[in-house]
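SEQUENCE-TO-STRUCTURE ENTRY
===========================
Question of interest: how does this chain fold, as expressed in backbone structure tokens?
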Amino acid sequence: MTTATATTTAKTAAPRDGGGALPGYVSDTLALAGRHLVHLRRSPGRLVLVTMNPLVMLIAIGYLFRESMNIPGNVAYEDFIMAGIAIQVGLTSVGPTAIGVAMDLRNGLVDRFRSLPIASSTVLIGRTLSDLFVGAVSLTAVSLVGLGVGWRPHNGFLQTLAGFGVLLAFIYTMLWLGILLGTAMKNVEAIDGSGALVLVILSFLSNAYVGVGGLPGWLQPIAEWNPVTSVITTTRRLWGNDPVGATGTGFPSEHPGLVTAIMLTTLLVVSVFGSLRGFRKAVGN
């Protein structure tokens, strides 16, 4: 082999972490996302899991128990609860995404990726894009069932669309939180329990099912500053489903959009940097 040929081969095999061409980076990311979607088509259990959990809560609480719920203001309980149900798509996604990353690290799949001339970050971004697609499909299914049980947005098409945009931003942030959890813990059993805790604690310590004022007094400040509460309140107001008197009186309740933007941006930045660092450390990069 000539010196020139050897040099060319070395350049081709080198990873693109050092700032390769953007089209190649995007192509690698989309290829990895497509790989996950092909796997999902063969084993759709993840899609079923992420969809069924909020649907069960929607039917159990939003439909069966709606007559028992007392929400202040002239808002139907189906309208009130819908944003709280939709938020569970993101919370439910944390555990499966974390488990998927941990399994990739455990079964040697990532080691095979390392032999390819791709940036290590494309592996994680590709997973988040495929999982975001799963979240979007689940959110669509939940919304259609919500329409079937009586939920209606009241602020027009653009604001309704903006509400779904806020939910998708929340779901994407939760996916990176799941990746951070998967690279940090690696133990599937521990991850499964932690994902369940994230779902239960963040959803029930919020205004998802009852207004902040309906919670015990010592829990109200916690619920009001819960980022999930801000996302839910922002979505409700965009949909026209936010009853007067159902939120608190503090800064997060008065400025939910601003609090949502700050909290989601901060959480996303921390999760992305932490995930990339943990992933590179795990694969010895």
